[in-house]
Amino acid sequence: IDDIQVYGHLQGVFNLPIELVSFTGHAKDDGVDLNWITATETNNDFFTVYRLENDSTWGEIAEVPGAGNSTSLLEYSTSDLQPKVGANYYKLRQTDTDGQFEEFDRICVIWKPPDKFTVFPNPSSLNSLVFITGEFESLMVTNQAGQIVPFVLQGSTLTLGSTPGMYFLRTQDGRSVRLMITP
Fold first, then answer.
1. Is residue 118 over pLDDT 90?
2. How far is Cα 11 from Cα 13, in angstroms, rounded to an integer?
3. Which of 53, 99, 110, 180 could anchor a disulfide with 59, C-beta 3.0 to 4.6 Å?
């Protein structure tokens, strides 16, 4: 191509605040990692990451400083440590040093709590300490007959009654683990 002719008005086309290469999210046990890459930046002040809270309201998750001006690939990241169970929609907003902003297409990340929580030692003997790892909002303990069993949970230490047998620990979101108590 020896000769290029452009017709029309191109004002502002070459002064885009950033060139976004990607905006992605990845679910992890403890939340959602959000990452984005820019190819160029011009007067970029900061990025804001939002999560859709309901059908129409976006809540701010994080604000991340921009590089100002750059012609190199730059990688950014932040995390949502309190995602909702199920579909989480995120959008990225870039704000210039003069207050102008641009929003990019939203992404969806499906998040669920970790599949397991653990109890150890298991089996355990009467009057020994039982420890629980994992996060949960509430816990219910039942015996083999399905009867609710009283227990005390202090931090990660579980204390059950004094009867040997098989117990089932269930979290509010449906995760469960079996615990055997021996004499």
1. no
2. 6
3. 53
Q: Which residues contact 5 (CB under 8 A, 6 or more apart)?
A: none
Query: What pLDDT score does 4 carry?
Result: 43
Report field, pTM of the whole predicted structure over 0.90: no
CB 41 within 8 A of CB 76: no
Q: How far is CA 133 from CA 93, 120, 121, 177, in A?
A: 37, 9, 11, 11
Q: How many Cβ atoms are within 10 Å of 49's Cβ, its own excluded?
A: 23
Residue 115 tokens, joined: 């599949």
How many residues are recorded in the chain?
183
Dump strand ranges (E) for the chain.
18-28, 31-52, 58-70, 74-80, 86-96, 101-103, 107-111, 118-120, 124-125, 130-133, 139-143, 151-154, 157-160, 165-171, 176-182
